[in-house]
Amino acid sequence: METTIELNGLNFSYGNIKAVDDVSLITKKGIYGLLGPNGAGKTTLMKLILGFLKARSGNGKVLGFGIEENTRELREKVGYMSESDSLIPGMDAVDFTSYLGRLSGMPKQEAIKRAHEVLYYVGLEESRYRMIETYSSGMMQRLKLASSIVHDPVLLFLDEPTSGMDPGSRKEMIELINDISKKGTMSIIISSHILTDIEATCEDVIIMDKGKIIANEKISVIASKEVDIFEIKLGGDSSAFLKKFERFKYEEADRGMIRMQLPSDFSTKEIFDAALRSGTHIKHFLKRRSTLEDTFMNAIGENGAN
Amino acid sequence: MPIREEGYYNWEGTLSKSKIKWFPIFTTGIKSVYKKRFSKLLFATASSLFFVFLIALYVSSKPELKMMSRLVKMISSDALLFRTYYTNGFLVFMCAMISVFAGSELISNDLKHKSISLYLARPLSKLDYITGKFSIILFYLMMFTLLPGLLLVIFKVIFTGDFSAGLALLVKSITFPVVISLFWASLMLMLSSLSENGRFVKIIFFVAFFLSQMIAGMFWGIFRNDNFMYISIEKNIQQFGSFVFGTPLEFRAPGWISGAILLGLTALFLLILAYRLRKVEV
Prior knowledge:
Chain A is an alpha/beta fold.
C-alpha cells in the first residue's frame, strides 16, 4: 500500500524540553489516530510534518515530498485543520473558504463554487453568509473542516477536530470524517486526546507520550489484545490477597480500589477463593473488557516507568 | 444541520501553477480595505490634491496665464510644481493616514486571530505572506502618489505638447513616490507585526511620525544646526523630494543623505518584520 508519511529520527525541542524525541514513523493510505495526553508532542509532530517547524535532526517525507525541502509542493497536497480557532475577521464563510481555496492555488470561480459545496457538505449552508466571528465554537470546527478540504487534499491533518463541540455536533463531525475517509481518496491523520473519537473513526492508532511514539498498531490488533479488567474493593488487609496475583498486572486506585488485568480465561471463582484464603472479603466486584483507553493508559504507564 | 446526502465528493479541477502565490492576499486585501468605513471619504480627500495641482499644471503650461505664476510660486517651474505636489504637508499626512488605514491591522489582526497558520498551511512561504500584505499598502499609497504623479506628467505633455520635457519628469515622478511608498509601507507593516492590538499600532505609528518632527524641531531650536532635521520623517521626505526634483533644498545639508536615511530605514523595517515573523509560532 502507498506510503503517505515516512519519518526518520525526527527531533525537536522547545528550549530544554524535548517535544518530539527521535520519532520514526511510517503510515500508509488510510485513517490514523494520533493519540496522546496533552503535551505528548502530537501538535508539534504535525507542525514538523507540515514544515511549520524545523526539526533539530532527522528527516521525513510526506507523499514523497521532503518535509523541509519541498514544503510548497507538500502543502498543495495536504489539508490542515488547526486546533486553534484561526479566523480572518470581516469575512463570511463563503469568502473565507474560497479565499483559502485560492491560496491553495484554486482558480477564483472554482474556489467560490467549491466553497459553497463544502460548506453545504459540513452543514453550514444556512449560515454561510454570516460573519465568521459570530460563529459558535461548533460552527467554527465545521468551518475549519470545510476550509481544510476545499482544495480536496490527498492527506488531511485534523488537530482535535471535535474540540469545543456538544455531543450532537461531535457525532456529526465524526460522521463527516468517516464519510470523507469512506470515499477512499483522502488519507486522514486525526490528532486527539479523546479516545472515543479515535475509536469511532480510525483504523490505526499511533500513541505518543513525552515526545515518543510508544505504540503504532491497528485498532483491531489492539482489540484482539483485550483482557478482562476486574475492579475489586476488599474489606481488611489486601497485601496477602495481592501477593497471590503478583504475576498479573494490577494497580491500586483511589479509596482502596484495586484494578487487575487478568487473562480472559481466568475464572472469577479463583478471585473469590483467593480472597477467602487471604482472610479478606470482597466488598465490591466489577468485571469488564478492556478498552482502547486501558491500552492507552497502559502504554503511557509503561513509557513512564521506562 | 444535515450532512450532504450524496456524501463527500472530489474536486475535479487542477491547482494553478502560478508563481505569484501571494496574489489572492493582494486582491482580497484591496477589497477589504475598500469596504472599510470612511474609506471613500479618506480616498476622496487624499485625491483632492491631484485636482488642485492639475489646475496649477494647466495654468503653468498656458503662456496666457503666466501672470498667475507670479502669484503662485509653486507653478513657476515643473520641478517645483512636482516637488511641491509630492512633498507638501497635506500629501505627507495623507500618506501616513492611508498607511494606517490600509495597513495597521494587516498583520496585527492575523496575530490576534492566530490566522498566520491559515496562510502557511497553504503553499505559501513567509516571504509570500509578507509580499502579499506589503502589496496591499503599497497599492493604496501608490494610488495617491505614483498614479496622480504619472497622470500629472501625462497632462503636462497634453497641455504643452512637449514630450521631451515629460521624460525626465516621468523618471523622477516614478522614483520619488516609489521610494516614499516603500518607506511608509515597510514602517506600517513592521509596526503591525509588533502587536496584536491594531489600535496600539496606530498610536505608535503617529507617535513615531509626530515625535520625529518634535525632536528634530527641538534640537534645531537649541543648536540651530540643520543636520538635526534628519531626525524628522517629514523633513527627510521633503529634503529627498527637493534632491530628486532638483529644487532648492529644504534645509542646508546634503539631500542624498535623506534618501539614504529613508532607504536605510526601509531596509531596517523589513529586517525587523522578517525577524518578527520568523519568531511567530504557527
